[in-house]
Design brief:
- The complex is a heterotrimer of chains A (107), B (644) and C (364).
- With 107 residues, chain A is of the alpha+beta class.
- Chain A is built from three helices and four strands, in the order E-H-E-E-E-H-H.
- Chain A has one domain: Alpha-Beta Plaits (2-Layer Sandwich), CATH 3.30.70.20.
- Helix content of chain A is 16%, strand content 11%.
- Chain B is built from 21 helices and 24 strands.
- In chain B, the strands form six sheets. Chain B has a seven-stranded mixed sheet, sandwiched between helices. Chain B has a six-stranded mixed sheet with strand order 3-4-2-5-6-7, sandwiched between helices. A four-stranded parallel sheet of chain B has the order 21-20-23-24, sandwiched between helices.
- In chain B, strand 23, helix 19 and strand 24 form a beta-alpha-beta unit.
- Chain B starts with 8 loop residues before the first strand and ends with a helix.
- In chain C, the strands form two sheets. Chain C has an eight-stranded mixed sheet with strand order 2-1-3-4-6-5-11-7, sandwiched between helices. A three-stranded antiparallel sheet of chain C has the order 8-9-10.
- The relative contact order of chain C is 0.12.
- The chains are: A alpha+beta (107), B alpha/beta (644), C alpha/beta (364).
- At the B-C interface, helix 1, strand 9, helix 9, helix 11 and helix 12 of B face strand 1, strand 2, helix 2, helix 4 and helix 11 of C.
- Strand 19 of chain B pairs parallel with strand 2 of chain C.
């Protein structure tokens, strides 16, 4: 099991979750943030702090955003498990369908 | 060979001898040897060692006096006796500390060598009692035991100090002659014990023989005595102390259950002998662990039980207090565990070397929360063997900690034990879980660690190593069945009641109590538990000899009580409960059965005397209008004794 | 016991524990129980749990031969979350219970999960005696420097002056250093690692499991509720080079931002004045003066001296890694060696018939 970041993060990337994550497993893509599923320890620290309510426990991802579970995994296809987002920085490995999303507006 | 003295021999039915001396004088060894000779000779016997808590109190002082009493007879006896017929006093302090227990006419053998001005002062004598008339009521034999011992061993190139060490053997030889004891067992014993130190061996044997010869030839001893063997069922016998019998019971239980035994213990008087003894029996699958403290001792034993061994922990009162939390965990985990409490005088450090029965309520209730567990008690030294087997049977069958309440008197006292045929003893079935015990709705099977046996309410015992039975247990409240943590109020209520019900069910496996009421007309019932069995039996016997009826019943199972106990108690007009505490069993009986059980208690660190018990029973019969006050044997001295 | 062939190599900690069949491989999922994990969000315990679940399959042992024992405290819930055999016992006593398990059964891999309050305060006695006996087990000591489960009192590792619910004016207790304590208690394996560094944590767990004897692993573990940030210095990307003194057996002890040679610009050297060790700029001392870490040194003095470089106050500096790893016979192996061949009821009869026995031929 793991936590998953979904659609509300796209083009927002608030990053509060990144500061909260005790194991530094939330990585930054071009359009959104992604949780490394193998590095996530399921501690749940990120979920309540996200102002956009974009983070869900894997089982609780709303049906409309079910594809994001896979997107979080796919983002790391090339990157693997670097063991810490801090030293990696922004990576342009967003899955193609995320890249193709229309720009998202936020309040 | 039995000694055949040329002096006249007088027949007597029973004799009580007390050897008393300084802690370093070897009185326990002397008493033990005399006991062995007596046991082999075939007398029934009971012993009572008494020694200070200090290893060596200041030499020559009253706190430093160590004594060993042996009562032997040509009939069966139940106690070590109240009043010695013979007191061997190795120094003035030993005389002073013990003389008040003697009746007129008793024999005193005193080592004159030690009655020096300095030793007299240390003992608190202004005058040498051997030289004034203060001992006029007794037959006093002043003998230079030390001097004659030194003379007897002069050929063995020992220092003077080493030579005087054999004086206890001289005394033993003298008393052995006086009562016609066989001498070979002691000579054999000394030969074996000091095989590596020939001059010590030879000196001790020489001193022992010199004592025998002195009795034979000295004119002061005009007569010797004979106590014929007691009537006993045929069989093989040995003399045994309670701690040794209890240790053997544990070894035997391990073999009968085919379980390795794991004893966790921390040294504590008077339970350490159990640790010492079990440490010798690794080849019977016994592992002993001398832990860093009492808590670790029970913790490791409980860990071993979890791992599928027979976990045992042995201690005394202060250790019981420390173990309380872990006993509660064992109740919660529902794992087999035997907690041996060899009770001593309390509270706190109390009287480490003296006996008491004041841990009963602690065993029953000394834990947080509702934490019931079975409690059982042996009634005599040899019975410690059977009680240990019973404790293990209950612990294993019901997956529960069991408290086995011995005491200092049973632990160190001894009696002849008719050896059991171990192959005929009942086997104990561990009944480990072998596989899944539950079917899920989807047809799959799983293992529920708290799914109970319908009959015993015991849960499965599933030590690690079995695939598919992986489970987690702990001290938190759990759901019945799954064992998963549960804070649900209804579940907690259920679990508290089911743990109690399980312990209650132990009674279903306990035979009904048999009341000893030969005439069937008794209106008085005396009920006891543990080591008071001997004194109560002796008191009952005395009262019956006076022509009165009295019924006796003795409890091995203190929790749960046997099923017919309530019915028995209700049958009698009066119920008295002698205990070495302030009335703990009486409290339980009154609470459970709403009867007017009357306490008769002593807490002086020594067992009840037979005479004292007779007085208790006669007083109770007087209350009932059966006996009258003139029957009461309690004279001023006995009353004083009770207050001491 | 199954005595391995003596190749002069240390006996592995897991020798005697049944392994999986050829080709069988478990995953972290196999070690995950059906119980919902109930630590606070962000708790370091999650990271350790995940690392342990990820690590256990590497041992290749049968799951049913692994036992986790814990005491009381947040971390002590650990066994409930692992699908192995487990016991959540009482406060401080896990090492004692585990001693019984490990001594009784050589075919079990025994793990203790404990915390700074559990192991160092109420259970301090059991910890030191387990260490000196060298019972074959691994003790994971989660050190968050606070009492979490009882809601935030200072612990035996809290820094002096710590303001908590029970010390509103600041604690006046001197904290103790678990690594120094363990080294003083004759421990044969002592290491320190960090909850959030899974790679390092896993490598230390691996070495600890391989060690035969009591392995103590102190794990710095953040409590986000009652002591958040206690280990920030060693977790912060910018500060950790200075804060962590990495210990690698056979390597120079270097730390700090990289120097000209690309290695840490600081190093540990002997302190001629105190007899201990001290930090120096690597450039200021001859290369041969820089301490080469020797975890296998039979003499624990240097390991102890290194352990003293741990801050006792707010943690700005701490050596991390395996301080000590030496071979010494274990308590449980020696106990098992003393046990002779198992004897039966005939021998039992002979035992109780021992001593001075007499026979009464007829009832009399």
């Amino acid at each position: 099991m793991t936590y998953v970041i979904a659609q509300p993060c796209v083009d927002l990337k608030d990053r509060t979750c990144v500061d909260e994550c005790p194991v530094d497993c939330i990585y930054e893509g071009e359009r959104m943030l992604y949780i490394q599923p193998d590095e996530c320890v399921d501690c749940g620290a990120c979920e309540p702090v996200c102002p956009a309510e974009a983070i869900f426990f894997e089982d609780d991802v709303p049906d409309e955003w079910a594809d994001y579970t896979q997107a979080n995994a796919d983002f790391f296809a090339k990157l693997g498990s670097p063991g810490g987002a801090g030293k990696v920085g922004k990576v342009a490995d967003d899955p193609q369908w995320i890249k193709d999303l229309p720009p998202q507006e936020h309040d | 060979m039995t000694l055949t003295p040329e002096k006249p021999i007088k027949q007597v039915e029973r004799v009580i001898i007390r050897f008393a001396g300084d802690s370093g004088d070897g009185m326990q060894l002397t008493g033990d040897r005399f006991t062995q000779q007596t046991a082999i000779f075939g007398n029934d016997l009971a012993t009572f060692p008494s020694f200070p808590a200090e290893i060596r109190s200041p030499q020559g002082t009253i706190p430093g006096v160590s004594s060993f009493q042996v009562h032997f007879a040509s009939r069966d006896i139940l106690t070590p006796g109240d009043h010695p017929d013979v007191l061997v006093a190795m120094n003035p302090a030993a005389l002073k500390a013990n003389v008040s227990d003697l009746r007129a006419g008793a024999v005193i053998i005193a080592d004159t060598h030690e009655f020096t001005a300095r030793n007299l002062t240390k003992a608190g004598y202004d005058h040498n009692p051997l030289e004034d008339d203060s001992l006029a009521d007794f037959q006093v034999h002043p003998v230079d035991l030390t001097g004659m011992t030194i003379e007897a061993v002069k050929d063995f190139s020992l220092t003077r100090k080493e030579a005087t060490r054999s004086k206890n053997m001289f005394a033993l030889g003298l008393v052995s002659w006086l009562y016609g004891r066989p001498v070979e067992p002691t000579i054999d014993h000394l030969t074996r014990k000091f095989a590596g130190k020939p001059n010590v061996r030879d000196a001790n044997i020489a001193a022992f023989k010199a004592g025998v010869n002195f009795g034979e030839t000295a004119e002061v001893f005009a007569v010797s005595y004979e106590v014929k063997p007691a009537p006993v069922p045929k069989g093989r016998y040995r003399n045994i102390t309670g701690n040794l019998a209890l240790s053997y019971g544990i070894v035997a239980a391990g073999r009968l259950a085919d379980l390795p035994v794991f004893l966790g213990a921390y040294p504590i008087t008077p339970a350490s002998d159990i640790l010492h003894e079990l440490s010798k029996h690794k080849d019977f699958g016994v592992t002993t662990f001398q832990a860093e403290d009492e808590i670790a001792a029970i913790g490791a034993a409980l860990g071993a039980s979890y791992a599928g061994h027979l976990g045992i922990t042995s201690t005394s009162g202060p250790g019981m207090s420390l173990k309380s939390e872990a006993v509660g965990l064992a109740v919660m985990l529902e794992l087999p565990l035997v907690v041996v409490d060899v009770q001593r005088g309390g509270p706190s450090t109390g009287l480490p070397t003296k006996t008491e029965q004041a841990d009963l309520l602690q065993a029953m209730f000394g834990r947080n929360g509702e934490a019931p567990l079975p409690v059982i008690a042996p009634q005599s030294p040899a019975d410690c063997f059977d009680a240990a087997l019973e404790a293990v049977r209950i612990a294993v069958t019901f997956r529960t900690p069991v408290v086995l309440l011995s005491d200092g008197y049973l632990a160190n006292g001894s009696e002849p034990w008719r050896l059991p045929d171990v192959t005929s003893l009942p086997r104990i079935e561990p009944g480990f879980a072998t596989g899944p015990n539950h079917k899920l709705d989807d047809g799959d099977e799983d293992f529920l660690p708290y799914l109970r046996d319908a009959e015993t309410l015991a849960r499965p015992w599933a030590p690690p190593g079995k695939a598919g039975l992986e489970h987690r247990i702990g001290g938190l409240e759990k759901s019945d069945g799954t064992g998963n943590i549960s804070y649900d109020p209804a579940n907690h209520e259920h679990m508290v009641r089911v743990r109690q019900a399980k312990v209650d069910r132990v009674a279903e496996t306990v035979p009904d109590l048999q009341v000893d009421d030969p005439s069937g007309r008794a209106r008085l019932l005396v009920i006891g538990w543990g080591s008071t069995y001997g004194p109560i039996g002796a008191g009952v016997r005395r009262v019956r000899q006076r022509g009165f009826d009295v019924a006796q019943v003795h409890l091995r199972h203190l929790n749960p009580f046997p099923r017919n106990l309530g019915e028995i108690l209700a049958r009698y007009d009066k119920v008295v409960v002698p205990e070495m505490n302030l009335g703990q069993l009486a409290l339980l009986l009154r609470a459970k059965y709403l009867i007017d059980a009357e306490s008769r208690t002593n807490v002086r660190g020594t067992p009840f005397g037979a005479e004292e018990m007779e007085g208790i029973l006669l007083a109770a019969l007087t209350d009932l209008g059966i006996a009258d006050a003139s029957d009461n044997p309690i004279d001023a001295r006995v009353a004083e004794e009770a207050l001491r | 016991m199954t005595t391995p062939i003596d190749l002069g190599l240390p006996t592995p900690g897991t020798a005697g524990v049944p392994t999986l069949a050829e080709g069988q491989q478990l995953t972290g999922k196999d070690f995950t129980s059906d119980q919902e994990v109930r630590w606070c969000p962000g708790c370091g315990d999650y990271a350790v749990l995940k690392a342990v679940q990820g690590f256990l399959p590497q041992l290749g042992l049968r799951r049913e031969n692994i036992v986790f024992v814990s005491g009381i405290g947040c971390s002590s819930r650990f066994p409930y979350y692992l699908d192995t055999y487990g016991m959540h016992s009482i406060h401080g006593r896990a090492p004692a219970i585990a001693t019984g398990i490990a001594t009784a059964r050589e075919d079990l891999s025994v793990w203790v999960v404990t915390g700074d309050g559990d192991a160092l305060s109420i259970g301090g006695n059991h910890l030191i005696h387990a260490l000196r006996r060298n019972v074959n087990m691994t003790i994971l000591l989660f050190n968050n420097r606070i009492y979490g489960l009882t809601k935030g009192q200072y612990s035996p590792t809290s820094e002096a002056g710590k303001v908590t619910k029970s010390t509103p004016m600041g604690s006046v207790d001197q904290p103790l250093n678990p690594v120094s304590l363990a080294l003083g208690a004759e421990a044969t394996f002592v290491a320190r690692t960090i909850d959030s560094d899974r790679k390092h944590l896993t490598s230390v767990l691996s070495a600890a499991a391989a060690h035969r004897g009591t392995a103590l692993v102190e794990i710095y573990q953040n409590c986000p509720i009652f002591n958040d940030g206690a280990f920030d210095a060693i977790k912060d990307r910018d500060r950790k080079a200075d804060a962590i003194i990495p210990l690698e057996h056979g390597e120079q002890i270097r730390f700090g931002p990289p120097g000209e040679d690309g290695r840490g610009s600081k190093a540990l050297v002997r302190d001629e004045v105190t007899g201990g060790v001290r930090a120096a700029f690597a450039a200021d001392v001859p290369d041969e003066a820089i301490l080469v870490h020797d975890a296998h040194n039979p003499d624990p003095s240097t390991a102890f001296a290194i352990s003293r470089l741990t801050d006792t106050g707010y943690l700005n500096q701490s050596p991390i890694g395996i301080f000590r790893q030496v071979v010494r016979p274990t308590y449980d192996d020696q106990v098992r060696e003393q046990a002779g061949p198992r004897r039966g009821l005939d021998d039992l009869q002979a035992l109780i018939d021992g001593g001075d026995v007499w026979t009464v031929e007829e009832d009399r």
